[in-house]
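Example 3.2
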Amino acid sequence: MILKEKDASPNGEGRGGDERAFYGHKQEQDVAFQLRREFGEHKQIHVINDLRLEHRGERAQIDHLILHPYGFIIVESKSIVGEVTVNAAGEWSRSYQGNWMGMPSPIRQAELQKMVLGRLLAANVEKIISKLLGIQGGVGGRDWQVLCAVSSTAILHRDKMPKKVADRVVKTEFLAQKIKDIVGNIAIAFIKAKPTFSRRELANIGSFLLEQSRQVGADLVHGDSAPSTPESAAPIAEPAPHYSASPVPDNASFQSEPAAQAESLLTCKQCGEAHHLTGMYGQYGYYVKCGRCSTNTSMKQPCPACGWKSVRVSKDGPEYTGSCRKCAKQFLVFRQE
C-alpha cells in the first residue's frame, strides 16, 4: 500500500534545480515506480516516499520508507552513472568519465536517518503502539534495515565490497525482490511468534509519520530554516572538467597569445579575469585558458533563462554559442577577438 507518493517536483529540501538534482529525482521516481508496482495493493507492506521528519532539532529526509509487520526498511536512492566500489573501511568511490572520486556513504546516510526515525517513534510510542496487559509496547525490538538503491545502469564491484555493504546495495530493478526477501513469509513468521505490529499499529505508525512529514513540509513552505541534520551529507557532485597538461587551441586560426582580448561574457573561475582569455578545445569540450593565472574554465555555463547546467557549446568562427538542452534557449557564451 502506498501511503505517500513521490513528490512531483525535484526541488525538495536541500535540492537545487540543476542537472544533478534532476537525475537524482528521476532515480527516486524509478524506485517509487518499482515499489508501487510491487506493493501498491499489498495490505501489510506500506510505502512512504519523500518522508520528512524532525526530532529535537534534528531533521531527516528519507527517500523511501517501507513499513511491514516486523519493522522498517529505509531505502536511500542514488543516481550513479559509472562504477562503484567500497573499501574495507566502508568508504565509497565512484567513477565518472574515467575519473575516480570519493563520495559519502549512502548506507551511513540511511543509518543516520534511521536514528532520527527511531528516536521520534520511541518518544511517541504511546500514540502508535498498543499496551499489552497494561504494559506499553515499543519499537526497539523490531527489525530495522537500511538499503541503498542505485541506478540499474551502474557497475557494482561487489567482489571489492565488504559483505555487509554488498548485501545492502541493490540495483533499482531488483529492489522489490530484496524487500520481499527481508520481510520473508509473514504467515511462517507469525507461527514462530516473531514480534509483529498489528494492522492497527501499522496504520497508526503510517498516519503519525505522514502527519509529521506534513508539519515539516509546512515549516519549509513558510521559510523556517532547517536545523543541522545528521543526514545532510555533502551532495554528490560530478567532478569538474579536467584538462590535459598540453592542450591545443580549438582552431589554428585563433592561436593568439593568451593576452588576446575577448568580450566579458565569460570570466576565469580562479581570478575573475574577463579579457585575457583564449578559446581552447580539450578532452571535455570547449573552454577558455586564462592568460594571467593559466586556469582553465569550461564554457559549459548554466542557461541564463532556466539555470539548467546541461548546455551544449558550439563554435562558429570567433563565437561560441550555448544551447540549453532543457528550454532550447541559445545564448552567446564567449567571443574571441
